[in-house]
Design brief:
The chain is of the alpha/beta class. The protein contains ten helices and ten strands. It has two domains: 198 residues, Rossmann fold; 97 residues, Rossmann fold. Helix 6 links the parallel strand 7 and strand 8. It binds 4'-deoxy-4'-aminopyridoxal-5'-phosphate (PMP).
C-alpha cells in the first residue's frame, strides 16, 4: 500500500481476539491503538484537531501550534506538525516519563516542563498563557470538539465495520480527555443501542464515580482541580479535573457502567497481555483490559466484548510498568547459560 503522507496511516487499527486470558464462552477482543504510526490513539486526535483548524482558518500556514500534554498527544502532534510543516511547542508536567519528552524533542517539538505540584491544571494554564502572549494556535485537546469528532468519523466507524452483522454486547474504554469516549459512545448509542458502554477510571481517583461536578469556566476549561483527584499510575487517564468532553458523555447518559481499576491491576494486566497474548501495550491498556475481564467474568455466554488498548508499552520503560524487569540475568537464566560451555560471563 502506498501513502502520500505518514498522516494517512493513522487509524484503521486491528481488532484482535484474546485467546488465553478470556474466560471460556465469551469473545473478548481488543482494539490495538499501538498500530498508529506514533504508537497511540492520540495520533487520531492530533490529525483531527489540526485538520479541523486548517479547514476553519484558525490555523494559518507556518503558525506555531501549542498544547498541554502528558505525552501521547504531544508525540502525535509532533508527528502531524512535522509532516505538515508547523512549529510545535508543548507544555508538560514534571512527573511524566522522560522518554516521552525525548520523543517529542526528537520529532522537532519544543517541550516546556511545568512544576509537578501544579499538575495538569498547571500545564494547561501555561499553554494558554503562551498561546495568548505569542499568538500561537492552542489545540485545546480537553475541550476541542474536533477531538471527539475524529473518533466519531474514524474509531467509531471502524468498530461498526468490524462488528457489522454481529452482536457487540460491551464496549470498554477509559478516558483522558474523553475524546474517545464521547466520539465513539454517541455513535454506538445511536447505531448499536444494545451495546453497553463501560468506562474505567482509577480506583484511587474516581472523579466520575464521585458524582461531584467539575467547576469550569465559560469556555469549558476547569476553574480548579476536582476535589476527588489523587495521583495514580495510569498516565494518560483521568487528569486532575473532569474534561469537558468526558462530562458531555456523562450528561448524555450513554454510560452504562463505571468500573474503578487499581494501579496494581493496570500493571498486572499490561504484563499479562504481553506474556500470555504477545500484545505489548501501556498501563492504561492494562487498566482497561482489567475492566474488560471483570465484564467478561459476568457476561452471558456468547457475548462479544471490545476493549480499547490506547498505546504501546514501549513508552513506559522508565515507569513502574518495568520496575521489576531486571537488566541482569536471574538464577534461572544463569543456569541456562551455564548448561553449555561457550559464551559464559566471568562473574
Ligand atoms: N490512555 C493513554 C495512554 C492516553 O494517552 C490517553 C489520552 N490522554 C487515553 C488513554 C485516553 O484517551 P482520550 O483522551 O481519548 O480519553
Amino acid at each position: 500500500m502506498k501513502y502520500q503522507s505518514i498522516t494517512e496511516t493513522i487509524g484503521n487499527t486491528p481488532v484482535v481476539r484474546i485467546n488465553h486470558l478470556a474466560p471460556k464462552g465469551v469473545n473478548l477482543f481488543v482494539k490495538v491503538e499501538a498500530f498508529n504510526p506514533l504508537g497511540s490513539i492520540k495520533d487520531r486526535l492530533a490529525l483531527g484537531v489540526i485538520e479541523a483548524a486548517e479547514r476553519s482558518g484558525e490555523l494559518k500556514p507556518g503558525q506555531t501550534v501549542i498544547e498541554a500534554t502528558s505525552g501521547n498527544t504531544g508525540i502525535g502532534l509532533a508527528m502531524v506538525c512535522a509532516a505538515k510543516g508547523y512549529p510545535l511547542v508543548l507544555t508538560m508536567a514534571e512527573p511524566f516519563s522522560v522518554e516521552r519528552r525525548k520523543l517529542m524533542r526528537f520529532l522537532g517539538a519544543k517541550v516546556i516542563i511545568t512544576p509537578a505540584a501544579e499538575r495538569a491544571v498547571g500545564m494547561v494554564n501555561k499553554a494558554a498563557e503562551l498561546a495568548k502572549a505569542h499568538g500561537w494556535f492552542m489545540t485545546r485537546q480537553f475541550e476541542n470538539e474536533a477531538n471527539a469528532d475524529i473518533h466519531t468519523r474514524t474509531t467509531a466507524r471502524e468498530i461498526l465495520d468490524d462488528f457489522s452483522g454481529e452482536r457487540l454486547d460491551y464496549w470498554v474504554t477509559g478516558y483522558g480527555t474523553g475524546g474517545t469516549l464521547k466520539g465513539v459512545a454517541r455513535v454506538l448509542a445511536r447505531e448499536r443501542p444494545d451495546t453497553r458502554i463501560v468506562v474505567c477510571e482509577p480506583l484511587d481517583s474516581q472523579l466520575l464515580g464521585s458524582g461531584i461536578e467539575q467547576a469550569r469556566h465559560a469556555d469549558g476549561t476547569p476553574s480548579g482541580p476536582h476535589p476527588t483527584f489523587k495521583p495514580h499510575p495510569m498516565q494518560g487517564w483521568t487528569p486532575d479535573f473532569i474534561p469537558k468532553l468526558a462530562a458531555d458523555a456523562v450528561e448524555t447518559k450513554v454510560i452504562h457502567r463505571l468500573l474503578p481499576i487499581s494501579g496494581a491491576d493496570a500493571i498486572r494486566f499490561s504484563k499479562e497481555l504481553a506474556t500470555r497474548e504477545g500484545i505489548f501495550v501501556g498501563i492504561t491498556s492494562g487498566a482497561t483490559f482489567a475492566g474488560a475481564l471483570q465484564i467478561a467474568a459476568e457476561a452471558e455466554k456468547g457475548a462479544n466484548i471490545l476493549c480499547m488498548l490506547p498505546d504501546t508499552g514501549e513508552r513506559y520503560l522508565s515507569t513502574p510498568l518495568f520496575a521489576d524487569v531486571a537488566a541482569d540475568m536471574n538464577d534461572e537464566e544463569l543456569k541456562i547459560s551455564r548448561s553449555t560451555p561457550s559464551g559464559q560471563l566471568n562473574s
